[in-house]
Amino acid sequence: MIVASALMIWKTLMCVTGSESPVVVVLSESMEPGFSRGDILFLYLSRDPIRVGRDIPIVHRIIKVHERKDTGEVDILTKGDNNEGDDIPLYAPDQYWLQRQHIMGRAVGFLPYVGWATIIMTEKPIIKYVLISVLGLLAITSND
Prior knowledge:
Number of strands: 5
Number of helices: 3
Protein name: signal peptidase I
GO cellular component, one term: signal peptidase complex
Keywords: Membrane, Signal, Transmembrane, Transmembrane helix
Shape: elongated
Order of helices and strands: HEEEEEHH
EC number: 3.4.21.89
Strand content: 15-25%
């Protein structure tokens, strides 16, 4: 029941926000000081034009936009605020730009440091297993 409810909430968020990942955790320091490692970001993907340096940054800020006049398609270059160079080394081999389909959304809100639980469980899997075991034992013992 809990898993089904969580899945329904996630799918509803996907429909409302237009993003495949409406909630994400910042995993590195690349966007500091705007966003810190462990912050949870809420993403929204609208059909608005993509522009450089919005007031609320995405996980990595858009620094260049090239719009093709004939098709209206947009090529995008991104960079982490705390990084010296652009993100081209992070893109696929021989890829120099992102397109709209690569964008997951704009950050429209965040919860500072709440995502640390996810980071800790990913970096130290034993904690995840202990937590799952404790929750399992609680579920078993609560039926008595």
